[in-house]
Write a structure and sequence with these properties.
Layout lengths: L12 H4 L9 E6 L2 E6 L6 E4 L3 E4 L3 E3 L2 E13 L5 E11 L2 E10 L2 E5 L10 E9 L6 E9 L5 E9 L2 E2 L3 E4 L6 E8 L5 E8 L4 E8 L5 E5 L8 E9 L2 E9 L4 E9 L2 E11 L1 E7 L4 E6 L4 E5 L4 E5 L7 E4 L6 E7 L2 E6 L8
Antiparallel strand pairs: 1-2, 2-3, 3-4, 5-6, 6-7, 7-8, 8-9, 10-11, 11-12, 12-13, 12-14, 15-16, 16-17, 17-18, 19-20, 20-21, 21-22, 23-24, 24-25, 25-26, 27-28, 28-29
Amino acid sequence: MRRPLCLTLAFLAWTAGLPPGLAADGLTAYRGEDWAHLQATDAEPTLWLGTEQAVELPAMEAPGVPVRYVDLVLLGRDPEGMQEWAVAGVAVDRNGPRLSLHGGRGDRVRPIAPPDRPQGAVQIASARWLATEGAEPLRGLAWLEATRPRAQEVWLSPYRDGDLQAATRLVGAGPGSQTALDAVVLADGSWLLVWSAFDGNDDDLVWRQGRPDGSWTGGRVSPDNRVPDITPRLLVTPEGAAVAWSRYDGNVYRVRTARFERGEWRAERWAAAPDSLYPEWVGNGDTLLFLRGSTRAWRAVGPVSSVEFAAATETAPVVDSDPSSGLPRARWPEAGGWRSAPGTPPGVRP
């Protein structure tokens, strides 16, 4: 059975730049047939658990301390059928940024104490929950922090007995910025992290796999090259994992994918036409969503159909299945309800 997906969509403006008018605060998470969407550009951030239930999240960590949400995961349903979830954000006050974490069941929101970090001494750029299935689906938190510009480090905190544990540094600063971190828990219980790191010439994708025995391995996803590789997004698969990202092909960015099996990356290929950006695995993981830069249209490509529409919303859409046709459809919130765009068959993978 396919492992439940815990996916997010966070467009990081400091990573590669956003097309004009696109927000960096739209987050979507999928788990089986369920989905949640966080529209964090409003004055009061709203978490939608499907189209019917809306949960208001804190806009401020404290008076005058706004929160920017950067990650969202669905954790399954409790015995009463209520969806459990967690969000991660960064709150900024006069002392600098700090992690702001919350969990919830349905519309009940509770704070999660972040791991201790020296506030003011570090700059926190992003955070990713590590989550899986089972009685305690949250397994940990990974994030990027820096003590000086363009010197991000990768940090981890395991989650045990209802609390995040002491933080540990996994990877220190490199020749330049480390950005766009993503993280998942694989079927064997190991942790897989992928991010974009500047090696002195260009941005390359690098990875680390942490096994339950505490050992770590890693390296580059692709052989060294002299073109930027940015915005990786991970998907858990029965065999291991897949990653989608955008690579500069000499003229424009273009979505590429690769598979992680038995500790190695393989089957690397182009997965979309030129000028494709910000890929994300959506739905049950068999559909790839990306932005077409020149037309400012979102495209979701699945095994049997596709959907494309102009970027009428500031954030990427939710992609689910139209119950009447079984085809993918794009959905996004707007004043007065949810708007949708149906799939247009026959869709063919690029």
